[in-house]
Design a protein that fits this description.
four-stranded mixed sheet, about 230 residues, 10 strands
């Protein structure tokens, strides 16, 4: 198995083979929660206006999203895992979630144009992803760290790619070093400092938990509209 490392929007466009598109803060830490809390379906939509239009046409859907971190206008909630946890199962159970984010969702949809398969990556599903990839046994795996707004590398996505590479190849991974490189840097501190209500302090606490869920999220590219499938691991 050949493991290729890519980053940012261009990396998503260049992904080949089985692509793992990584967004730790916060898109692909949120999506596993949607399913864990009972959502029936998740539709990834990169365009804000299109996401809002789908919500208008289907008012029973839940619209979750952000534009450059700020909550998407007209959304039911921002792209926040702690907010999803507070909403709870009663809010999500049996419903369809339309999800729009600047980096993760947009990158995953871009990767789907050329990759054979797209897996949505974060720390909370990392070990399940590694097991899935080993079972699938692709010739090429592209790990795409989406970074801050898909324009600038960020330590949490690169650290998650390091962890996945460690799980797949057995190479070294130092969790204490990863903690230091992530938590004390800007992309985590903007949550911890608590200056913006839409960046809750609690979000990194969840996003940096490793191996919480024993399932994998995969983009279904077979229909007219991309959707996210939950693949439970045995």
């Amino acid at each position: 198995m050949k493991i290729i490392r890519k980053s940012l929007a261009r990396g998503a466009e260049e992904a080949r083979g089985l692509a793992v598109v990584i967004d730790v803060f916060r898109a692909f830490s949120c999506q596993p929660l949607f399913f864990h809390l009972g959502a029936q379906r998740v539709i990834p939509i990169p365009e804000p206006e299109r996401a809002r239009k789908i919500k208008e046409q289907n008012p029973e859907f839940i619209l979750v999203g952000e534009v450059n971190e700020a909550p998407l206008e007209g959304a039911d909630m921002g792209n926040s895992p702690s907010q999803a946890i507070l909403k709870g199962e009663g809010f999500f159970k049996g419903r369809t979630v339309v999800h729009r984010t600047t980096a993760g969702v947009t990158g995953a949809v871009a990767a789907a144009k050329n990759a054979d398969q797209v897996v949505l990556g974060s720390f909370v599903t990392a070990r399940a992803i590694a097991r899935y990839i080993k079972d699938y046994a692709p010739r090429e795996v592209t790990l795409v760290a989406m970074g801050d707004r898909a324009r600038e590398k960020c330590p949490e996505d690169e650290a998650c790619a390091d962890y996945l590479e460690h799980l797949l190849s057995g190479g070294p991974y130092d969790p204490v070093r990863a903690f230091k490189e992530v938590v004390f840097q800007r992309t985590a501190q903007k949550f911890i400092q608590g200056r913006k209500t839409y960046l809750p302090r609690e979000d990194p606490l969840f996003c940096l938990q490793r191996d919480v869920f024993d399932f994998v999220l995969v983009l279904d590219q077979t229909g007219e509209e991309l959707q996210v499938l939950r693949m439970d691991m045995p």
